[in-house]
Design brief:
single chain; 216 residues; mainly alpha; 68% helix; globular
Length: 216
């Protein structure tokens, strides 16, 4: 839902920048390791957020709740096993976000174990807890969101890699127009209040399940 709360945006921004950067860097790293130098040649094999941020996608996630970074470009012809390697590159982003989400949840658990009052001390304690929780939430959100099989999300690359080449025309049309479907679903869901994409629901269940598993 649209939320212009400046305080929330300020606390959320570091998590978004880290989540986007980790996601796109992981795509680039795996692609290069599998033999495609395109991401490195285009300056995407870096942890500098400026290289990965797309303004519209950044504003979308801060204001609406769903967004994206600048997609890493690859050339599957440089891979030894193009279809399988492209799937691995596509999975790298969501998987890295999932790992980071778990890692930040473990950090919260560690703070609660070693210094249980830290999140309740002064005015900074609750702010620190909220920032760390945003790091968990955003990374889990990016993992869930990007696995949906709608262009330009990673899930669509996985889906299209599994579809036989004889359906090339469908793949081309789906790739070209899928992004407009995605934006329409996000905006309609955000402004109407109807969950047209169960991204928030799935992220909430994952977030709550992780915290329950860690006893928080």
């Amino acid at each position: 839902m649209f939320d212009p709360d400046l305080r929330r945006i300020a606390l959320l921004l570091p998590a978004v920048l880290v989540g986007f950067t980790v996601h796109e860097y992981s795509h680039a790293l795996v692609a290069v390791r599998l033999g495609d130098s395109t991401p490195r040649d285009q300056g995407r094999l870096t942890l500098n957020p400026i290289s990965h941020i797309e303004l519209i996608g950044l504003l979308m996630i801060l204001l609406v709740g769903f967004g994206w970074a600048k997609p890493v470009q690859i050339n599957p012809r440089n891979f030894k096993n193009p279809r399988n390697d492209e799937i691995l590159v596509s999975l790298a982003g969501p998987f890295s976000n999932l790992l980071f989400g778990v890692a930040f949840a473990l950090a919260v658990k560690l703070f609660l174990t070693l210094a249980p009052t830290i999140f309740y001390t002064g005015g900074l304690g609750p702010v620190l807890y909220q920032i760390l929780s945003y790091f968990v939430w955003i990374n889990l959100l990016l993992a869930v969101f990007n696995l949906f099989p709608i262009p330009p999300l990673d899930g669509s690359h996985i889906l299209l890699s599994l579809i036989p080449d004889k359906y090339a025309r469908f793949k081309l049309v789906y790739t070209r127009y899928g992004r407009f479907i995605l934006i329409a679903l996000i905006l309609l869901g955000s402004f109407s209040g109807y969950n047209l994409l169960p991204i928030g629901f799935l992220t909430s269940r994952l977030f709550e399940g992780l915290y329950n598993l860690l006893g928080m």
